[in-house]
Amino acid sequence: MNSKGNPKILIVTTPIRPIPTDFPPLGSLSIISALNKVGFKNTEFYNIDLLRPDYNDVIAHICSAKPDILGISAVVSTAYEYIKKLSLDIKKHLPDTTILLGGGLGASAEIVLKKTGSDFICTGEGEATIVDFANRWLLAKTKDDYETVKGLAFLNNKGDLVVTPYSDPIPAEDVYDIDWSILENQDQMKYYIGTFENSVKDNYNFSSDPRSFETERQKKTLIRIPTTKGCVARCTFCHRWDKGIRFIPLSKVMESIDYFTKKYNAGFVQVVDENFGSNKKWLLEFNAEMKKRNLLWCVAGMRVSTITPEIIGQMKDAGCTAIIYGMESGSSKMLEVMEKVTTVEQNKNTVKWMAEHDMFTIVQLIIGMPGENQETINETAQFANYFVEQSPKTDPNALSINFAQALPGTPLYEIARRKGFIGGSLEEEENYLVKISDRDARDGETTINFTDCPKLYLEKWRFEICNSVRNAYLNKWGKESYFNIVLNSHRYKKGFTGKKSIDSGYFAKPARGQESRLGSLERDIDLASEVVSDTIHDINEKIEIHGDRVPPLIEILRKQPLGSLGTFYPRFFWFTRNLTIFHVFLNELRKSGPVYALKLIVEVILWKIKPTRLIKENFNFNNENSLSLRKVLRKGYIPAIVSDNPAMEKLRHGR
């Protein structure tokens, strides 16, 4: 360890989705700002997630920088494979560089420390920890010298895992206190500031509101800002380091909005909170300030237990165009398993009130949690039907349906470990992290089946919900209204030709130089932001609508976007719904190949012969009165793994 000087610190992001996100790297920027404020000025930022350079170029860039401390941002655990390769390669070239990893992947601290090149893990909020860590780095001679730094996990001199107490939460006024010149000096800000044509015109959150097309707004840009950090809920599938929620002082929020309005001509604001508006007094004041500025804005995350018809009306009057909620399920049982602390009635009231105020929302669903069965899926489908029956403007094909994904630090992950779906050894856990790397939560192939039904049923259930919703819309609003919605959907009108970004994926190797890569980012980011969490269709549709013509069946089959078959021929799939399992099997055959598809169908056959086969292997959740997964663990219904490292206990439980 060094004992003198101002360390060279390099903070890097990692790819968190197959294409670059349009969400600014708030965590990394906050950490760099915190370091700069206390005098660590020799700090640089390398935005791998945005730039998507060739992997060899990444290594060359970091080696050229020769950082004393390399901070790697791993926002989600699906970045594990990339992190492992990157950290081990950097250690080969720069053995004296200290690697500090932060983000959600830190919940797997023991695996990361023992299987990758990472030296330390930041557990929790990084702004305070990084400053204390850098100060200690100046004087430390061995790893044991870091034991007094809060918010760290590392292997001490004996090789034992040490997890220090969490750092104290930073004050609300310091949350996301970002120096935007970090991005501006690298000419990257333009990729997070959306133009009207590229980020607003075909964005459901704004295009559904006629105010967006008023003449004075046509040259305005779109910005994304947080107003809070944290959440009041503790959903059993969700991992976070933050405890509770902090509301950024309103004056600071407005100062940030005014900065973007003045410098970037912002006229549209996407509030990117997980839990917006739970403080009613703060919300009323926010509405008043936004109304003064004549801005249009939408909310990416709000709880149905927060909302009322009056609040929706006040928000709309203040310029709000859309509110997205994490409703997750239409089954009371599953809401309890998820520990949503909400009800189906609240979900139904919310979609009804949104329709009454002519405001856009979508239904976001998570299926496949422990205890899910045909009955709960039917209940969820009925709720989704109710949603589209509230307004003819609702796009019945714009649903977000994801499979429950077990991520470290969540009760769902612990259930998976203890029941043997993942395994209790470090090797088994690492195999799982590799398996889900560079995958999203709608990827059925890597999804753990927590239910007592065959895995093919998970895909069948998703299709059944979609099928039911389309039919409900047709019955309520008619064929003419349905195809008017479909044929004018920007998914097809924009001409998505099915061309996949050759830069997608963690280890992308684009066949072009850095300059042209940056030039292509606008297309990639626009593509990512135009689609509203639509898990029925691929982001890149291969079907393009011309005029008001429904594409012929042969064209759809030839271009192979099988999800579009249900969109354009909904009645056929409804009348043949008893054959859904065969439709889904054929789709799996196309997506994943004959070996995987055959494995799925064999499992169905065996289950039909002996249904108890899966029930004996899985956790029969029905016996526990639909308890929250957290309560299931606390009550000891599933025994703990005796070989677990006690030092990992608090990380496994999350906060």
How would you describe the overall organization of this protein?
It is a single chain. With 655 residues, this protein is an alpha/beta fold. The protein contains 29 helices and 16 strands. The radius of gyration is 25 Å and the shape is globular. The relative contact order is 0.10.
Main attributes?
655 residues; alpha/beta; seven-stranded mixed beta sheet; five-stranded mixed beta sheet; 29 helices; 43% helix; globular
What layout of secondary structure does this protein have?
Elements: E1 9-12, H1 26-37, E2 43-46, H2 48-51, H3 55-65, E3 69-73, H4 80-93, E4 98-102, H5 109-115, E5 120-122, H6 126-139, E6 152-155, E7 161-163, H7 181-184, E8 194-195, H8 196-200, H9 204-207, E9 221-225, E10 228-230, E11 245-247, H10 250-264, E12 266-271, H11 280-293, E13 296-302, H12 309-317, E14 320-325, H13 332-338, H14 344-356, E15 364-367, H15 374-388, E16 400-403, H16 411-418, H17 426-435, H18 456-477, H19 479-487, H20 490-493, H21 514-530, H22 553-559, H23 563-568, H24 570-575, H25 580-592, H26 594-609, H27 612-617, H28 629-634, H29 649-653
Parallel strand pairs: 1-2, 1-3, 3-4, 4-5, 9-12, 12-13, 13-14, 15-16
Antiparallel strand pairs: 5-6, 6-7, 8-9, 10-11
Cα Rg: 25 Å
Stretches where pLDDT falls below 50 for ≥5 residues? 494-542
N- and C-termini, Cα separation: 32 Å
Largest β sheet strand count, sense and barrel closure: 7 strands, mixed
Question: Can you describe this structure in just a few lines?
Answer:
The chain is of the alpha/beta class and 655 residues long. The longest helix is centred in the last third of the chain and has 22 residues, at 456-477.
